[in-house]
């Protein structure tokens, strides 16, 4: 069975394993953002909630992008377990701190995909990985900028802070053709 699977795909086992790990990571990221969205929503931060809901959808689309890729390449995917993320936050700032920490973790794993695909001369997977490299520039930037803005807006009403955070995506830079990333 295993040999047959190997013949069906040009993905080497290590690369496929790393891609499956990334499917799980993106799935968990989606759940984390959903938890932040609901926390913001029930605490009246409607604009920030909207951002986190859309971010949750985006992470799911990342999971699907990798899952589809592995299947299109003839590989085997593992649909990940849903883990319960942190439900309670002390502040909106904490949401973005957790977000930044999580995005840095994601970036490191994306780099593993690129490194492993280069090692295996797997240029198709390298291309997939490079799309995510660009995407991560945006993701890290937004979380970092949000924390910065919360600190700069210190003293403003929470309504003003929430409204500004609702537009945080527009603050993201466009490094090389990141426009094609989501
Ligand atoms: Fe992602
Ligand atoms: Fe994004």
Kindly identify the CATH topology: Ferritin
User: What proportion of the residues form beta strands (DSSP E)?
Assistant: under 5%
Relevant CATH superfamily: Ferritin, core subunit, four-helix bundle
How many individual domains?
A: 1
What class would the helix/strand composition place it in?
mainly alpha
The total strand number stands at 0
| The CATH C-level class name | Mainly Alpha
- Ligands bound, unique: fe (ii) ion
Largest sheet: none
Low-confidence stretches: none
Global morphology: elongated
CATH architecture descriptor name: Up-down Bundle
Short précis:
This protein has a single domain, classed as Ferritin (Up-down Bundle), CATH 1.20.1260.10.
Describe this structure in words.
The structure is a single chain. The chain has 182 residues and is an all-alpha fold. It has one domain: Up-down Bundle (Ferritin), CATH 1.20.1260.10. 72% of the residues lie in helices and 0% in strands. The chain contains six helices and no strands. The radius of gyration is 18 Å and the shape is elongated. It starts with a helix and ends in a 16-residue tail after the last helix. Bound molecules: fe (ii) ion (FE2) (2 copies). One fe (ii) ion (FE2) binds next to helix 2 and helix 3.
């Amino acid at each position: 069975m295993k040999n047959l699977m190997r013949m069906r795909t040009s993905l080497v086992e290590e690369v496929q394993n790393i891609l499956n790990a990334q499917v799980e990571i993106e799935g968990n990221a989606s759940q984390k953002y959903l938890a932040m969205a609901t926390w913001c929503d029930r605490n009246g931060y409607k604009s920030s909630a909207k951002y986190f809901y859309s971010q949750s959808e985006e992470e799911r689309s990342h999971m699907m992008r990798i899952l589809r890729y592995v299947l299109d390449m003839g590989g085997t995917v593992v649909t990940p377990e849903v883990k319960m993320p942190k439900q309670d936050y002390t502040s909106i700032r904490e949401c973005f701190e957790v977000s930044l920490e999580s995005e840095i973790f994601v970036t490191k794993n994306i780099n593993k995909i690129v490194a492993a695909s280069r090692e295996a001369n797997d240029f198709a997977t390298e291309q997939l990985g490079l799309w995510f490299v660009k995407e991560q520039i945006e993701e890290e930037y937004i979380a970092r900028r949000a924390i910065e803005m919360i600190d700069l807006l210190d003293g403003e009403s929470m309504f003003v802070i929430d409204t500004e955070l609702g537009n945080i995506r527009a603050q993201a830079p466009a490094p090389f053709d990141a426009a094609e990333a989501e």
